[in-house]
Amino acid sequence: MARRRFKPDQRRALKLLAVSRNGCTEAVMLAHGFPVPLLVELVRSGLATATAERVVVGGRAVEVVRARITEAGQREARPKNAA
Question: What global pTM score does this model have?
Fold first, then answer.
């Protein structure tokens, strides 16, 4: 199966998600320099998922978005010569 061609920042985002056991929040992705439209591209192409979660911070409930890599994203994040 032919691999997709990705921009370097898309591949970098996939690699970050691949090593993040529980995924990354939108804030973490933004802190690493990945803009929201890039995350939307990854989700729409089936390489990542995004889920809204409620977390309690300082006694207040806050909604955050967590991105996680999919199996298809894992395959794309592997080095080109890996089987």
Answer: 0.83
pLDDT value at 82 more than 60: no
Identity at 1, one-letter amino acid code: M
How far apart are alpha carbons 11 and 39 in whole angstroms? Answer: 11
- Domain boundaries along the sequence of the chain: 8-77
> Residue 24: how many CB atoms within 10 A of its CB?
23
Sheet holding 24-25, edge to edge: 24-25, 60-69, 48-57
Place of tokens 């990705």: 6
- From CA 61, how far away is CA 63, in angstroms rounded? 7
Please report where in the chains the tokens 């889920």 appear, as a residue.
51
